[in-house]
């Protein structure tokens, strides 16, 4: 299926405007206003589902009752609202697997990615998220703040923080020691080695195998995460990772703090850019 001409986020913002809202507070009320009823159900085959009423702009959104995170349940419900609202989605019914929700895994159907983008904008409106990220930069700490303020999951909050920042960042999800997917923003150019094993030089690997700390951040060799024909052995990235034991995974934000490839000066040497010590200070405020 070809990508939509109008971004899914635009449909989310249009829905907000139509309803006179700026964010999602009471989920059942919002669904009711668009003709949907929310149900939690026992399910083994799907995390979320949309069942439309035949010939009527009505339907039921079903969410798996055993999803452990409230923010993940809210995202899943809004993912199904996306299928209800977006053109060409969910004409009769659709059933969405756990691996297709809150993901950027290669091979995910385009409709599922579009519904993810719609849900992310509904749950974490870009304009409101930007003011938080501008203060604190794109970090796991900032994502946790977004989780609390918007009642969102950590994965969704991290993805939105990286989307809105002006830094060159990418979200990476690793599971059972393998890099499963990444979601870079427009400023992040390096190629992350998806579907390869985690490098022992990465903090994510150390969190998975160390058995102690749950979070870590700091400078790591760029080769621990990215591949490039002109990568310099001295090139580094800033890594901010959190271990999520229930999912046997690690959620990571990678940030380019200086040009890679050995061909440029450090960012802190560029006119108008911040220095290395200030960079670290701002990320820990």
Molecular structure report:
The longest helix is centred in the N-terminal third of the chain and has 16 residues, at 70-85. A hairpin with a 2-residue loop joins β5 (169-175) and β6. The protein has helices at 8-19, 27-33, 70-85, 110-123, 126-136, 140-150, 154-164, 203-210, 276-283, and strands spanning 36-41, 48-52, 59-64, 93-96, 169-175, 178-184, 191-192, 215-221, 226-227, 236-244, 249-255. It has 2 domains: 8-123, Orthogonal Bundle (Arc Repressor Mutant, subunit A); 149-283, Beta-Lactamase (2-Layer Sandwich). α1 (8-19) packs across α4 (110-123), α3 packs across α4 and α5 runs antiparallel to α6 (140-150). It is globular. By secondary structure, it is of the alpha+beta class.
Question: What are the SSEs and their pairings?
Answer:
Blueprint: H1 8-19, H2 27-33, E1 36-41, E2 48-52, E3 59-64, H3 70-85, E4 93-96, H4 110-123, H5 126-136, H6 140-150, H7 154-164, E5 169-175, E6 178-184, E7 191-192, H8 203-210, E8 215-221, E9 226-227, E10 236-244, E11 249-255, H9 276-283
Parallel strand pairs: 1-3
Antiparallel strand pairs: 2-3, 2-4, 5-6, 5-11, 7-9, 8-10, 10-11
Helix pairs in contact: 1-4, 3-4, 5-6, 6-7
